[in-house]
Amino acid sequence: MKKLLTVLILLSIIALGWSSLVFANQDRIIIGTAAEAVGLDPRMETDIYSGQRIYVIMEPLVIFSTEMELAPRLATSWEFNDDGTKITFNLREGVKWHDGVPFTAEDVKYTYEWILNPENQSPNRSLYVDIIEIEIENDHLLHFHLEKPNSFLLNNLARICIVPAHHGEEADFRENPVGTGPFQFVSWSRDDRLVLSANQDYWGGAPNVDELEIRPIPEDSGRLFALEAGEIDVYQDQPIPEEIARLEEDPSINVQRIPGTGYRYLGFNTTKPPFDDVLVRRAMSHLVPREGIVDVLQEGLGIVATGPVPAGLPWYNPDVPRYDHDVDKALELFTEAGIDLDEAVFNLYSHEDPAFIRIAEIIQFEASRIGLTIRTHVEEWGAYWSRLQTPDHPYEMYLVDWFGQVDPDRAMYRQYHTDGARNFGMFSNEELDYLLEKGQTVPPASEESISIYNQAQEIVADQAYYAFIHYYEEVGLSKASLNGFTPNPFVSMTWANAHLFYKE
Amino acid sequence: MKKFLESKSAVAGVIIIGTIILTAFFADFIVPNDPYFINIWDRYLPPEGFGNDSNYILGTDDMGRCVLSRIIMGSRISLLVAGIATSISALLGIFFGAVAGFKGGRIDAILMRFMDVILSFPSVLLAIAIVASLGPGMVNAMFAIAIVRIPAMARITRSMVLSVKQEEYVLAGYALGFSQGRILFKHILMNSFAPILVVATLNMGTAIVVEASLSFLGLGAQPPTVTWGRMLAMGREAIRRAPYITFYPGLAIVLSVLGFNLLGDGLRDIFDPQLKKKG
Amino acid sequence: MTKYFLYRLLQLIPILISISVLVFLMIHLAPGDPVLLLMGDEGTYEDYRRLQELYGLDLPLYQQYFRWVGNALQGNLGISIRQGAPVSQLIFERLGPTFELAIASVILATILGIPIGVLAAIKRQSFVDFFSMIFALIGVSMPPFWLGLVLLAYVSMNVGFFPMFGREGSIVGGLWIFLTSFNITPLYDGFRYLFLPAASLAIAMMAIITRLTRSSLLEVMGKDYIRTARSKGIGEKVVIFKHGLRNALLPVVTIIGIQFGFLLGGAVITETVFAWPGAGRLVVNAIIQRDFPIIQGGVLMLAIAFTLVNLLVDLSYALLDPRIRYQ
Questions:
Q1: What was the ipTM of the complex prediction?
Q2: Global pTM?
């Protein structure tokens, strides 16, 4: 027994001695994020987690600032012609790929032509189909010719990083990429870590740290433990609402909150009676306790939503019909629509995320207060998402969220236009279709654009196509010792300025 | 019966399990509050005696529902899932194992290889795959939990049948001209009952835990149905802010597993004459 | 011995065929479509048709199956639909961490479980027996995700020694560095990162091993040959350890083998909580994304590993019990 005790004491001394050495690395920043990247080829990836990593290694022509304005990156300036069918880009000079080869207009042309070539199976192709020709004038000047005016094409261009033409055809580019970004690829083992090293020749100035490591830690609690224990410098992805108040008090943690570009809603399928009746949709909308969800369940994270356009954007229209939480009003509307609440059974679908399940439960409970039965079905993600995307899907009501709604076209066309690729509600409204098409042809910053989309939001709200719940907030959680890190409303670009990060 | 009362662990097991079953049966009458009543403004109230003078003895959960009432109501589905899943796996496992052991030869080989197929499929993956195919929900979760447990039951039954098959009383049965079915069920199975029962009681415990794991992956019972596993899974994000909302359902799981195991141990002692002598 | 080994290997063939058919049917008949999940926010119906064709998902099921089998027989497990990387490479990356975690938890569970089980059997119905049982039962009644979070919240958070997540190099690699360059840090780090996930898996397994060792030893101690040994006047310790335990370990070894097999693919929840890059996570993520080639390849590889481990267990019977000979 004595021997055992001695061994234990010795072990703990060794342990204490060593553990203090381990985390004191000034030259390396470790980011913990919720999921692994699918791949690292910007042309092929569609998910946020791949995007976040890609924007550190590679760069787009233009990028979103933290105020959601377009800022120059690989392009220094750009200009539309008068009828909006040609964009001219001046490219940044002196930019080099990580292998030392200079970046030129060829690379830009190569990237977009590759995506547009149907044989390459890029899932991002539909973003750029309005581009008919890319014409190079010289190494740093090129023109995009468009089939028809597309006001928000620049925003779409910001979504894709430029790929080097001299590496793009390599079979392993997706797992061994080369870019122009502040950090360059070193190694990647899936579900373990992505290691990046500083690009000393970065045009925006050499990064402050030598190494950036990105680690997927799927369980939120585990990731938060890691942040508080100092094992990671940044906690990426939605925070745990229960902990946010405590973290804001904690001097060792830096909490930065900004309005995001995502929103969560309760969707209706307008082809399934009684949800073809606007009265029923309005009634359901009155049953959603938005304030309770945001203030209590989310502990204040998020903003009560009124429509599809995020509150931080200039196109946001606050003066639309609102459906405050009002059970009596809902009862009245249901009665007016001729719904027999004792007989009616509605079905509500959700996936397995606890926050979604909570919202489903609360809506179910609110309905039970007026005697309406709602059956909740929690589905496994793969089945849920596949079904929602099939035409004539069987879901009457469903909970969904969208991220990256950077402009009103993005936030509305795909979801509310009759031909929209993600029109889960099967809406078809001529006036709305007209407005959404027109919005694509007028300059984005103009009064006209704002007025068009204000009208469109009014129709969506008036028809109660969706019961909007809340807009997301983006929260940057980092160690107080980390400087230069700011969250970005467009989540994929959160680490795009990683060269500015430094540790005290 | 006398033997049974002599076994302390069996008695303790019966008392614990009996209490839980009674609780589940009369859940509607003994819950202090409505277990489904949501009042988010009262969420995460600590248990009484921890600065809470409301009428929530064990506090409230993430939606402001009474934790005690939910544990009581949850006992129902948790026990039901465990009971039905274990019964299905026991019935099918005993059937396959008995037939394989009794018939031997090719039938034995085919059946046992089939069991190997299930066994070599990692169990969590199998459960996930089953639930992903059939859709989540309590019934499918039960089915998944049951299938995963069949091979173990079949193997044990088969080994018991093999050892009992050559006993004199079985051979005597043949001599008397009894039918195969009668010999198998009346003579062989009745005498291999004890270890099978022990494994079954142990399975009841693990079934509750597996249901919790499925709930963690979002594949368990559907809301608003409450199970102990779902309570743990939904409360895990508040593990530091309100540890009690997961501690008490966890305790309920420990208690019921303890109960089933005590019962199993006791039964083994009773049915095993050699051990009894050694005392 | 060799003959028996080959015979068992032959038996693997029908098992693998059934598993491949079963997995194939299960994932293809389940709701969920890899292409729809792949397309993300973008993608039109034309893109969908094109991608379906590219991955051969528009072919009749039996054609898809035979195409896959044909390739698999040539050692080609296909390309991941979602990640675009070869499935064999994705699985190969996971083998090290997966086996490391499984072996570590088996060792931990065994070196603690068997002695406690023996002690509980010897001092039957004593204090030790009672507490080992309570401990074991708490061990099996804690769902793995909960146990993992509790370990992180209360052990790791308070003892800086144990990290919160991830893996820092392999133990074998660390050992090699230590032996060649006398630098113990990699080995030491490897252990620090491995310990908590291994412990959280070992706790439930230890419970089973303890209970089984106890009951098996009790049963063996009642057998005639033990009485004979005792009556010969052999010391009690020798009786227990030489005659009793050796025979009592047979079922324990069987269970350890089965548990080890489970851990290879079934540790997915622990892998998730501790962010361990294991095979379970790979396959479960593939199930969620309906990445058919990874699911098929992964489950097949895990089944092979499981069967081989159990073959080794069966062979080890011969070591434990000299009466058993394989032919």
A1: 0.88
A2: 0.89
